[in-house]
Amino acid sequence: MTEPQVLDVDAIKAEILDLETKRYQAVVDGDLDAFRSFCHPNLVYTHSDGSRDTVASYVNKVETGFYVYHRIDHPTEDVLVAGDTAVVVGEMNASITANGKDKELVNNSIAVWVRENGTWLLLAYQPTPRPAS
């Protein structure tokens, strides 16, 4: 009988938080090769306006200047781990230019990471505007 695999949840949370920091920084820096390296090929990237992108369409929009990220803050409330899935619950607050218009984003966010062949990849991302207080 084989022993059940024990997850080191704290180590997974630390790794996921590091990946989140690196992927946000890659976007701000315009390092799209780095950004791609964090993404699952089936990534669904939903924007706060409800539009959706794939990895390719999102990267194209950043490359062409449709999206320009000037600043991103991403405080995290929790990282939920279930097997080879991690869900980051937090915020995404940013100063961006979208389609030529400057915007300040104040969002709650969910990022879903999956582990495939030992590598964590971003599978889904969804920011949602926070209600005005």
UniProtKB/TrEMBL annotation:
Domain DUF4440: start-end pairs: 16-122
Stretch forming the signal peptide: none
Protein name: DUF4440 domain-containing protein
Organism: Rhodococcoides trifolii
